[in-house]
Prior knowledge:
By secondary structure, this protein is mainly α. Helix content is 70%, strand content 0%. It contains 11 helices and no strands. It has helices at 5-26, 33-39, 54-67, 69-76, 86-96, 99-103, 110-113, 115-119, 123-143, 150-170, 174-190. Helix 3 (54-67) packs parallel to helix 9 (123-143), helix 9 packs across helix 10 (150-170) and helix 10 (150-170) runs antiparallel to helix 11. The protein is globular and about 60 Å long. The N and C termini lie far apart (62 Å).
Amino acid sequence: MPYSSRHKAQTRHRIVEAARVLFNRNGFTEVTIDDVMRQADLTRGGFYNHFGSKQELYAEAVASFLNGRGKTWRDEAGIDPENGGPDTVRAMINAYLSPEHARDIDGQCPMIALPSDVARATPQTRQSYEDLLKAMIWLYENNLSATKDRRAKACVLAALSVGGMVLSRTVDQDSLADEVREAARLFALSALD
Length: 193
């Protein structure tokens, strides 16, 4: 008896989530299809029932963050992308540049964990990454006061958020990592005034 469409969708989700976590931890090149399927508690043979290639899975794993782990993260932080106004912008900055987010390697936004890998990835993966960036910029822009420089400010806030976290993750000295992350957070908050 064939599997139901619901079962197939659940299995695909397990594969995507396993891949997202492994890519965050190890990067694209260090993760194999076998690793992903083992993490999802499935056999390798089932992979090709869902994806044509590892690159296709990579693009979907990056894209899945926005409405998967990212949505959970935003909900936990009390971020209302649609109607929150300046308080949403502050909450986003504080949560994104928080020590907790810095330590959550498995749950981090792919914009933090994967920028170098994505730059060398397929157009489909780069588009998924770009969609995440556009969503972040939109969240900031949609919730900032209506001024002529609102779009530019939203882009700067996104750059500070992602850049601050990327830099803080790349240094070994915890105090410097914390200093960079906290400086980005405070500067981003000061840009709201």
